[in-house]
Amino acid sequence: MAYAPDCRPVTEYRRVAHARADNVDLVVEFPACPRPVRVWWATWDDHQGGAVLSESPTRSAPDGSVHRFVPALEHAAAGFRWTW
């Protein structure tokens, strides 16, 4: 998913599994400039808005991307959040 440069800065990308989803692979690619200051893998209590239930710091790859493979996701909202 690409976002227009004149839009409000995006600070998260989450996917939702209402039923069981197996072999979930999430990747977010950031441009060379700017890159986020910090990135976390997170889970939320709702698919839109909602509170962060858990988060863990995530390191970016040399190309600026972040990646997470989850064997199964069920009744959950999970993804990445970051600060610029």
Structure, described:
The structure is a single chain. This protein has 84 residues and is an all-beta fold. The chain has one domain (12-83): Sandwich (Immunoglobulin-like). Helices cover 0% and strands 60% of the residues. The protein has strands spanning 12-29, 38-44, 52-57, 65-83. It has a 4-stranded antiparallel β-sheet, with no helix packed on it. It is globular and about 35 Å long. The mean pLDDT is 88.
Report on the biggest sheet. 4 strands, antiparallel
N- and C-termini, Cα separation: 18 Å
CATH architecture: Sandwich
Strand order of the largest sheet: 1-4-2-3
Count helical runs. 0
Strand content: over 45%
What is the C-alpha radius of gyration, as a whole number of Å? 13 Å
Low-confidence residue ranges: none
Mean pLDDT: 88
Kindly provide the name of the CATH class: Mainly Beta
CATH topology: Immunoglobulin-like
Counted beta strands: 4
How is this fold's topology laid out?
Blueprint: E1 12-29, E2 38-44, E3 52-57, E4 65-83
Antiparallel strand pairs: 1-4, 2-3, 2-4
Question: Which descriptors apply to this entry?
Answer:
84 residues; mainly beta; Immunoglobulin-like; four-stranded antiparallel β-sheet; 4 strands
Summarize, please.
With about 80 residues, this protein is mostly beta strands. The chain has strands spanning about 10-30, 40-45, 50-55, 65-84. It has one domain (about 10-84): Immunoglobulin-like (Sandwich).
